[in-house]
Amino acid sequence: MLKPVLPSTIALAPALALAMFLVSCGRADHDALAEPRASASTDPVEHVENLIRLIARGEVANAWVTFLPPSWERDVEQVFSRAKALLTKEEFERSRAIVAKLGEKLEPVFTELAASSDPDTSAALAHLRDLPKTLGCDSWAAFERLTVRELVARLESGFLRSALANDELRARLASTTVRLDSSTSNRSRLEVSSQAADGERTTTTLELELVDGRWVPEEIARDWSSDVRETLAAIDEFAATKRENPRVILAQLEELDGQLDGLAAMVGGFARMAQMQAGLGN
Questions:
Q1: Phi, then psi, of 220 in degrees rounded to 5
Q2: Residue 74 in domain
Q3: Which pLDDT belongs to residue 273?
Q4: What φ, ψ does residue 36 adopt, rounded to 5°?
Q5: What b/e readout covers 92-111, taking b as 16+ CB neighbours within 10 angstroms?
Q6: How many domains, the chain?
Q7: Burial of 249 per CB tally in 10 Å (0-12, 13-18, 19+)
Q8: Most CB within 10 Å of its CB: which of 6, 17, 102, 227?
């Protein structure tokens, strides 16, 4: 349940650099973001319980810096910075224009869904609809300064906080218990149990390793360094491709621009289907 997806996120860094162009200065009320605070503990049970409480309160940025060992956060920032450097100002501006067009095409879908949804879903849809505006970058300089830590904080302040304000999710998090099964100086095995809305209780075993004062999943710790090296190598390989073919990203953007009607229809179809399934579940 708590197994992070960070390695796969790192592996997608080159694509994320292209996708994350929209995240930076945003609305005026997002200009001053609070610095995230870690609530790490060398006690494995307390550490996992801290993470659960932070997520339950919607404090995603604080959970981010609590989960990541400091050296891992430096790795993530390095990958993100190198990936961002793949994007030129021209590609950045072209990407912004495409997202703006996609938002215009999706506006009728969001309006329709919000009108037929419960208040919580309507609020989440409003945040999702406004995401490009909320996080939209108004300057190339701001994009160049963007960090992953700031990105997570900006996402928390809008869409993610709404998505986490879900009664069923909160109830499940509130029902979660963490028990120590075994422990050494740098490894621990925990049993994490939670109860679903139908009363069914699920128990997951977590194998953790202590890295830079943070308890992290052992399998992620085992592969972390090699994942980072492989991702940086992939970024360098793509940079070499761009040097040989400087228009490779612009060509992809032009192709995407020509497919926006189909993409908007697909997103709208998925959104309507999700709303229908949610209604059947209620």
A1: -70, -40
A2: yes
A3: 75
A4: -60, 150
A5: bebbbebbeebbeebeebbe
A6: 1
A7: buried
A8: 17
